[in-house]
Automatic annotation (TrEMBL):
One of its GO terms (molecular function) is hydrolase activity. InterPro entries: LACTB2_WH, Metallo-B-lactamas, RibonucZ/Hydroxyglut_hydro, Sec-metab_biosynth-thioest, WH-like_DNA-bd_sf. It comes from the Bacteria. This is Glyoxylase-like metal-dependent hydrolase (Beta-lactamase superfamily II). Residues 30-202 form the Metallo-beta-lactamase domain. PANTHER family: ENDORIBONUCLEASE LACTB2. Keywords: Hydrolase.
Length: 285
């Protein structure tokens, strides 16, 4: 994207600068967006992959200011590995999402969990970190991952939404850690807030966040309806459902679509609406 080049600081508002990492893919869009919050001292949100050019770009954007915290929304490999070299260079604590070790490489190879992620402080709903003129408040938004956090900036009404709400696509929800029931509840939770703008981990700033979240809820309910209609016609496997539901899908995204359908089926199963018989799913009679 010529208007948002890799490694160049983009001032989004007086307290927020964005730096794009050089890791574009079908799953990350143009790459992971690191946000730097503050004026005289700063927090670095989702420093991204352990890429020397990106870390050098972050240091240029920080420009010698004290780093109060390195903040992580979730520890997928496109978000958290740069915490370690950045901590070594700045001495800042790593804070945010809780760590755990889970092999989740099946749906998207770029976003399996960063097993070396080791925060100095785990944050939960309502926890805050503060600097000179800024505050970041943790908002628990599980679904994309069980440990996902968003961070509100109450001074300006901004929300750093990580991968829970992105500016270019709906997020993947991939079991076993991704959970559609939790994801939908987290979207409903955001609907109850009045944030002015979302700054996502991927894609453009979201200037009308309530409208987008409402649309995302509707999109997921539409997918759920498609699944139920298909398996009411006949018991079907997940690949058969994906073939019907996602006509013309990029073949590289088929595994992710299958994981998303599985997440919907698990949610429907929890609600007592469907059952699994071998590799096929059918409505519960």
């Amino acid at each position: 994207m010529a208007e948002h080049p890799t490694g160049i600081p983009i001032q989004l508002e007086p307290l927020v600068v964005r730096v794009l990492a050089p890791n574009p893919s079908p799953f990350t869009h143009t790459g992971t967006q690191t946000h730097i919050v503050g004026r005289t001292d700063v927090a670095v949100i989702d420093p991204g992959p352990d890429d020397p050019a990106h870390i050098a770009a972050l240091l240029r954007a920080i420009d010698g200011r004290p780093v109060t915290a390195i903040v992580v929304t979730h520890h997928h490999r496109d978000h958290s590995p740069a915490t370690r070299p950045l901590q070594a260079l700045t001495g800042a604590p790593i804070v945010g999402a809780a760590p755990f070790d889970l092999d989740d490489a099946g749906a998207r190879a770029d976003a399996s969990f960063d097993s070396a992620y080791a925060p100095d402080r785990v944050m939960v709903e309502g926890d805050r970190i503060e600097g000179n003129g800024w505050t970041l408040e943790a908002i628990a938004t599980p679904g994309h991952t069980s440990n996902h956090l968003a961070f509100a900036l109450p001074e300006t009404g901004a929300l750093f939404s990580g991968d829970h709400v992105m500016g270019w696509s709906t997020t993947i929800v991939s079991p076993p850690d991704g959970n559609m029931t939790a994801y939908m509840a987290s979207l409903e939770k955001l609907m109850g807030r009045d944030d002015r703008v979302y700054y996502p981990g991927h894609g453009e700033a979201i200037e009308k966040p309530q409208r987008l979240v409402r649309g995302m809820l509707g999109h997921r309910k539409q997918r759920e309806g498609q699944i139920l209609r298909l398996i009411r016609e006949a018991a079907r496997s997940i690949p058969a459902m994906v073939e019907r539901m996602y006509a013309g899908l990029d073949p590289r995204l088929v595994p992710a679509a299958e994981r998303s359908v599985l997440a919907h089926l698990y949610d429907l199963q929890t609600r007592g609406l469907v059952i699994e018989e071998g590799e096929a799913w059918q409505t519960k009679t």
